[in-house]
Amino acid sequence: MEQKITIPSGRHQLEGYWQAGASDKGVVITHPHPLYGGTMNNPVVETIQKAFQQHGYATLRFNFRGVGGSQGNHDNGIGEQDDVRVAIDDIANRNVRQIDLAGYSFGAWVNSKVVGDGCPPVRSMVMISPPVSFIEFENVSALSCLKLVVTGSRDDIAPADQIRDLLPAWNPDAQFEIIDGCDHFYSNHLDSLQSILARFLQSAKSEPA
User: Which residue(s) pair with 28 in the sheet?
Assistant: First the structure.
């Protein structure tokens, strides 16, 4: 059962939902653009959360500053990077030893700005529809912890061709999945997304810790 929590982020308090897992693995999940209605209750965010929970992960989803019950104001992705950092600290303080990071759209971009090369303490990162045609990604490079990128064949905000061109700079070894017929909002394709995540998480179990 999820538990509503409050996470301090500088002068602000962020609202989030935490659910303990069956192991010492956990994931922080970030949501799409706040100025376009993005919240932690987005269906794609909830699908990501469900997939990780079904594989024994603890989950922490939260609202960026200025969204829902989180204090502060939208900060064009700058302050939001601090929000991700404090969420990572929060989950680490809950006895999570292996921390993953997953983000959808704007959340994927913010996550990429946070981790940089090396990605400590994040072990693995998943990007769902990074919005490469909407937000500047050219200065994002060397995401060594990036393991999976997913987008749709009809996603004009995260076009597959643009992502494919950027992947060698991010991590040429990252898995890239394209859902046929899927747009940016994953309408009628949430089951396909969950299946991709389930296969990915199942394969990750065999990797060394």
Answer: 60, 101
